[in-house]
Amino acid sequence: MRERVEHIRAQFRDEVRQVADMAALARVRDRYLGRKGGLITQLVKELGALPPEERPTIGRLINELKEEAEAALERLRVQLEEQAEAERFERERVDITLPGLRPLFGAPHPITLIRQRIEDIFVSMGYAVESGPEVETSYYNFDALNIPPGHPAREAQDTFYLSEDLALRTQTSTVQIRALERRRPPLRIIAPGKVFRRDTPDPTHNPMFFQVEGLALDREITMGDLKGTLQEFVRRMFGPQVRTRFRPSYFPFTEPSAEVDFSCFVCRGEGCRVCKGAGWIELGGCGMVHPRVLRGAGVDPEEFTGFAFGLGLDRMVALMYGLEDIRLLYENDLRFLEQFGF
Amino acid sequence: MRVSYRWLKELVDFDLSPRELAEKLTMVGLAVDRVEEVEGDALLDLDVTSNRPDCLSHLGVAREIAVLCGTSLRYPETRVEEAEEETARATSVEIHAPELCPRYVARVIRGVRVGPSPRWVVERLERLGQRSINNVADITNLVLLELGHPLHAFDLEKLIERRIIVRRARAGERLVTLDGVTRTLSADMLVIADAVRPVALAGIMGGEETAVSETTRDVLLESAYFHPLSIRRTARAMAMSTEASYRFERGADYEAPRRAADRAARLIVEIAGGRILREPIDVYPNPLRRERVRLRRQRLRRLLGMDVPWAEAARILRALGFHIERADEEELWATPPSFRVDIDGEDDLVEEIARHIGYEAIPATLPAWSGYGELLPGEEKRRALRAVLSALGFSEAITFSFVNEQWDALFRSDGARVCRLQNPLDETRAQLRTSLLPGLLESLLHNLHHGVRSVRLYEIGTCFFATAEGERPIERERLGLVATGRLNERAWQDHHRPFGFYELKGTLEALLEKLRVRQVAFEPSPQEYLHPGQSARLLLEGEPIGDFGQLHPRIAAVFKFRQPVFVAELDLEKLLQTEGEAIRYRPLPRFPTVVRDFSFLVSRHVAYAEIERSIAELGIPEIVEVRLFDVYAGPNVPAEKRSLSISVRLRAEDRTLTEEEIAAIQARLLAHLRDRFQIELRA
Q1: Domains of chain B and any CATH numbers
Q2: What CATH code is assigned to A110-340?
Q3: Which among B365, B390, B419 has the least Cβ separation from residue A135?
Q4: Measured between CB atoms, does B452 come within 8 Å of chain A?
Q5: CA angle centred on A251, ends A247 and A255, rounded to 5°
Q6: ipTM of the complex
Q7: How far is residue B501 from each of residues B272, B385, B504, measured CA to CA in Å?
Q8: Is residue A271's pLDDT more than 90?
């Protein structure tokens, strides 16, 4: 009996070594441990027929063999399963370096990107966004802004005229007057929009470009508020390290008037190609609303004071993205537009 | 305006390097664009704003420096030694147009020796960009740069009757100006004439014939004040801009003529010899003056948001040449100097003070506010449209508002009237657009020309429609789309699939879906720029809001497109105003949905929407959805037919449908479709 057990063990070990797949494994399990006719199962059954004194020793021996066989088969099963899984994974392996299948996205125009950022900044500061027509009468484009007939700013070489009295607006300041007709002070508005000037296109000029106008009118608005507001705008738009500078200038519709510059964010004011060595970049014009403009709009300058500003959007886009030729803005070349994300 | 650092030093004391000076001037409103170091000097390029003609001279700039540095101005020497002979005996001046020429000063210098200028004069002029002509002409130019007042020197002997008459030109009168050009004058132009003919275009340029030359012995120096508007009008009409006209048209100093004439006469005698006749002629019938302006201390504080020491405010104004009177603790009255054309109100004085205490001294604050911020009406929707279009592969274009008239006409609806520019930059782009499509198609063309074959662009912008003569045009906000090429040529699977009609329609449907606008319908489009078989009109609440489809091959040929191009244009105003359907939760179905798919042949002329509508009209509540999943025409389908495959979803809200119920519905549905459309079920 002992020899038979050892023989079966040897035979089992030999067969198990040859198992290569699940089917073979099942066959071996069946042959040795099958409920009916399994060689080891048979041994267990025959145990009862042995003399009682042999039973404990042989019984332990058979049990050991059974446990060994079960353990070996289980190990083999796990191993085969892992192997099968590994093979499946290998079969299903993708080349992760192949490009992803992305839907094709379009890009927003960089002017829109900047315009929306500006709108969001000012809206969060309590400003309402306003708009006005692109074709304006001389009244809104000039007279109401304290630019009387004969003023150089009215010269035809700067303005696209439709008739003697109608022109494409040369500045978004027109919306100041329109807004004052719709809302009474106190008010705070910004008005982004297209403006037109008769400039032959070159790397820094287009006959059409975008401005954003701002106007705040209240009982106690000061030039300090103008400084603080634009400083805050610049900080949010270009970052906390960027400084602003206000210097006197001239616009017919503001008094005092100022030009606002911000320190070059490329060289941090050291002077570089972007700021043409000046360390400062012109952001736009601003000032305290001229009393004549207020009076013309039916606002008493003794009761209300206010500030206004006009900033060039195209310029901001050019600076923000390092654009050297702003004619690209209106060519709509996809190789250009796609650089602005989606 | 270019100024010399050394010259400024002669006029005012200051202890600043050229760079420091440039910085200070910039911060006081005279922006310095460039500092150029030259041997023994530095040249500063000033950007002088149009309201400050008084700073178009070394003296004017020096005055600002004097205020900045708290030093005083050294006015150039103007004292002259006069001869016995009286000016009035040598010449006469009459002003026939005092409204255009309020003042005319004439000095006569006899016995000059005209010749080359001494070295220092030549150098000074050349450094500042001017050519030396002869000693007399050079001195007038030098005084212009020094004092800012334009002068002109005539050869007295060449003036007929040695007289000066300031008058309007006679229409058609001719004058050969110093630049050798023969100018034909009109009656609104002011000229300086002698007894018979014009000898100078007043305030702009002298005449050639009466100019000072090598043979000149006696010089008549003109130092006048002309009305700015008259000079500007004439200079524009003549397309001329000279150093003189540039200053006169901005506003010269009406008190300067006498001093400028004396200064120039003195220098001429110094370098060209001669004697200055006694007592210049000074015709000044109605002396000009400036109105005094009140400044309240409270206004100053209120505008700047800070308290400027009152004494400092007065000091600044005085140093700038204002005459201060009746000053007390709360207000003062200031009369601007004759050279300050820009001051006519209290806030102008505030600016003068602010400039000189420095804008940087004003504390930055944020205004208190109780209002609220808001975007433009419809802006959230516009942003949503942009997001959807980006996700669908459309990039945003911005095109010019002025377009080619012929191209615009291709897309213009009947009866639309156009606005034209009177002075376009380019005659082929002289019209305001009535459609976004010409600009977008031009951009598309640009991309094709640069090798980008698959292009999808959109634009949100204004179109213009003329109304009555002299009235502002109607401006409409529109959305335009153009698309051509492949759907996704950069993908490495399925990249051949072209963008077609249904992609375009799907894009529009996605936009409507995003806005939750439901009252929409499609019908055939009457637009002639669209392919008659591949075009549709979009209606919102029964109103047409746009057309889309394939660009008509004839129009495509105009643009030389060699591949199908799809276009759409919608009027945004109604779309943005239409309230989207509110989002309301619906309970999820509690009973299972059964799906039945049918493929059938039907005549090509039956529109799919009719089939869907007809199923809906059956009114079977258990049919919860009909979904098209395939359309096929080609081999195995008769020519006049196509195969449609639909998926019908059946469900009851209160029970699970039985096989019998399903079979009954299916039978009813198919019988109906057979009856209505003669469909033949396919296997």
Answers
A1: 2-69 (3.30.56.10), 82-283 (3.50.40.10), 293-359 (3.30.56.10), 379-577 (3.30.930.10), 594-681 (3.30.70.380)
A2: 3.30.930.10
A3: B419
A4: yes
A5: 75
A6: 0.89
A7: 86, 20, 5
A8: no
